[in-house]
Amino acid sequence: MKIYNRAQIEQVTKLDLNALQAVEAGFSALGQGKVTMPPILSMAIEESNGEVDVKTAHIRGNERFAIKISPGFFDNPKLGLPSLNGLMVLFSAKTGLVDSVLFDEGYLTDIRTALAGAISAKHLANPDAATISVLGCGLQAELQVAAIALVRPIQHVNVWARDASKAVDYQQRMQQRYGLSVTIHANIQQACRDAEVIVTTTPSKEPLLNWQDIPRGAHVIAMGSDSPHKRELTSSVILNADHLIVDRLSQSQSLGELRCVEKPLTRPVLELGDIVCGKVRYQRQVDDISVCDLTGTGVQDTAIANYTAQQLSN
Question: Are 35 and 57 in contact (CB under 8 A)?
């Protein structure tokens, strides 16, 4: 058994096209029916404002499968500690013996989450999308933009956040690290007015994005709602979208944005993996509005963990 720490993992797995291809291959396998993926195990630690999720999946033919343990304790910043942590354990798919332990402290989850947004943009957004609007200004607000810039010609970022000082920090960070121009907006309507891609990256418990906020032709990536108490989109966004895509239908219905829709859907809901592998044909007109709900899947974890293990063994 091999044990790796975060510093070692960061050396070999980065937010780049190689890692994107690994996660994309995981989605493709999911669409082809080559993945065994049980429901997420989730447990609340209410007295500490915490939760822990356990995710896993096996991709048929892969040498290893991963089990990820991901705690989130959201009062930790008051103690000078990170909110998110965790590790991934890789097992041999032939013997079940532990192959390696990746003490990534949540790093790989951050990377694979951002790459899922990029895969969504690659397959679903207009090819020339250059303006992105972000709701929230945390780590995923940064990484989602950086990842999407791998597959779309992103030039300008519009951002809205509840905390004005954090929005300024975000603006400076994105300009310095990625050379992107960033405009801070006082409200969501202004932030989304010219958007070609909209990414919601908040832990909101109440819907933030309304249908009237979304311009024609935009692609919406909702990645903040990944538990029953979170929600970022109003029902009108789900009900009116020209295209509705999820990473996993059962998860979106239980944990994501589909959970809160009061009326029956009149459009089919597609899974991202089905589009990635070509099982389902996706065609959008330039003015269509598409919405993709990403709740985070075990196949992403196994895909990024396998990729990391391979890089570490080279």
Answer: yes
